[in-house]
Specification:
Protein name: YhjD
Number of strands: 3
Strand content: 15-25%
Shape: globular
Low-confidence stretches: none
Radius of gyration: 17 Å
Structural class: alpha+beta
Pfam family, one: YhjD
Oligomer: single chain
Largest sheet: 3 strands, antiparallel
């Protein structure tokens, strides 16, 4: 049983997922720039704007974790699992993540961030 409150645990997981998402988006940006798209700029701008939002959110999370004496570090990984150590206000917990779960989490966040921008623009137009 974890001693970590749900809110803090969720932020700790975001500290795992968001850097992975940035890595995926950097690769996608490179693929768009080198690809044979007719209009590259809209795709590039969408990815760059999304990355900026993610970087901002990640910076906020890192500040919160630092202020609250919380750390997340990758310990080890193999073909199936990745282990992280969560240091929470003097307590240490080891969490094992199934790699496909990590991949699915990153994909869900990608959908959220890409659609979030679109939905915010739609709301602004309607207002």
């Amino acid at each position: 049983m974890s001693r970590i409150p749900t809110y803090d645990y969720d932020l700790m997981e975001q500290a795992i997922y968001l850097p992975m998402l940035l890595t995926v988006l950097k690769r996608d940006l490179f693929a768009v720039e080198k690809g044979s798209f007719k209009f590259k700029r809209p795709y590039s701008e969408l990815i760059q704007e999304t990355m900026a939002v993610i970087q901002n959110d990640l910076a906020k999370i890192k500040r919160y974790l630092y202020k609250n004496n919380i750390q997340v570090e990758r310990l080890k990984s193999d073909e199936a699992f990745t282990m992280y150590i969560f240091l929470y206000k003097g307590h240490e917990e080891h969490h094992n993540y199934f790699n496909p779960k990590l991949r699915n989490g990153v994909e869900e966040l990608m959908q959220y961030y890409l659609l979030k921008q679109f939905k915010l623009e739609q709301k602004e137009k309607e207002a």
